[in-house]
Amino acid sequence: MQTVQNLTDGILGLPHIVVNSLLGRGDATSGDYLSEADAPDNNNNPEAEGVTSGDTDSNIDDDITHNNNGESISIDEATVAEDDAISPTRHCIPDRSHAIPYALITEQWQLVLDQECTIPEIENSILKCKDLVLGCAEDTEDRKWLVRHLIELRYRLRELQDVENDLDGSLPGTKVILGHHFIARKNCPRYKVYCDHCSGIIWNVVQASYVCIDCSFAVHHKCIRNVIRICAHVISAEQNLPVECICPEIGLAFQKYTCAECGSQLNCDLSTAVSCFGLEFKAEKFNSIEPRLCDYSGLYYCPACHWNDTSVVPARVINNWDFVPRKVGRASLQQIRLLYDRPVIKLEEKNPRLFQLVRKLGGVKRLRQKLTQMRRYLTVCRIADELRLMRDSMGTRRHLIQTIDMYSVADCVGVENGTLPEFLQRMHDTFDKHIRSCLICSGKAYICEVCNNNEVIFPFDDSAISCERCNSVTHRACHFRKNMQCLKCARLRIRKQQLRNEILDAANGN
Predict the structure, then answer these.
(1) Number of independent structural domains in the chain
(2) Measured between alpha carbons, how far is 116 from 171 in angstroms, rounded to an integer?
(3) Boundaries of domain holding 282
(4) Would you say residue 135 lies in a domain?
(5) Is there a single domain that holds both residue 464 and residue 440?
(6) What is the rounded distance in angstroms from the CA atom of residue 138 to the CA atom of residue 226?
(7) pLDDT tens digit string along 78-126?
(8) Which residues lie closer than 8 Å to 377 by C-beta, 6 or more apart?
(9) SS3 of 174, please?
């Protein structure tokens, strides 16, 4: 047993390339797969993940190679560049954030942001980055990466200029990496926090960590230089809409059996047959990584990038009105959270049959139509503005009374569980009470000119109907009794015809 242990320790102490050659993995590199210590399953033993990941990171050094220009780059970067040169379809995988273009690797742009640099150096880097952007073809992954990096360089330049202009100011502790704005975590949360890069637990008492103020990406201090995931805020700003297709799966073969984010090698068959004394047993393959499907993006990820988190998928809500939580990757989960409260879905345009099949949606649409008409009274009312009636009633959901066709994922969830109709009904009752009792708003009421009744009516009453052309309000029954013809529109047509006749008579000298 001692001999076997010494042999194991000796193999683990060898460089990654030697170990891969001994194991018969000639295609794998040091960054193409993760061991169980590097990418543990967070659902089984999260406490053990932090210890093993920390030990592994402290013991393993990055292998270094040299390119043609004499610059030192890591083996992971060289392998990515070589794969990109051989296989152009590597960049065809959507949302593949780890495929850094070769121009970025050779120029070492990311190192400029991490080191202490001066304003002239940043300005020189911006000029070089502009030249690379102009030299790239449009709608390519290289151009997107260069544009994102150019924005990061300009953000860094603005920080340095602000510090130089303000003598009493100090450089804020913000690190800009791939669109993330990392700040040091000062307050220790009461719940467990895991690193989004290595999936290990963050011990806030003894470990320094950073968190992105845009997408809540948490990372160790030792892992911040190795972040490969683009900020979900940048992705959501570029797309502006959630994925509308239900799980647009492209298959592992198109991904070359690698993780869509970190590029780890994935295995479909996790077990192999082992014969011993004439008997066959099934054993797990060494360093086998199970692919996990993201129901939002349709891509496969490794356990380090897919923690089996569940979330409501917007595409299933829009198409099937399905609110069952599905398993999504970490990057997709952050994008869904950023788009959760954002009103970007034209629900009736995407799926008009939902308003016929889901009765609650029809009620919500009618309430929003009434609130839109009430807004015309409240926005010009001085008393309502002094009481801050609209601000206190709506909060951050102003889109509910500004339009009637824009919905967010949170609105759809509120319709399903009944919270949104109750919220709109309370808002309707508050606005209706003010409009009928306010001297300014009640003075803008209408009287039906068909029946000439002394009862005042408003366009948001159930018994009233408003003309779409002249905005005149009459009783609904009176409107149908007049064969759905507006009297005010008829008078306007007659006046227009009389004015036209007067102009013609004046031109003819009559």
Answers:
(1) 5
(2) 11
(3) 271-349
(4) yes
(5) no
(6) 28
(7) 343 344 433 333 333 333 333 456 555 555 554 455 556 677 888 888 8
(8) 384, 435, 441, 444
(9) strand
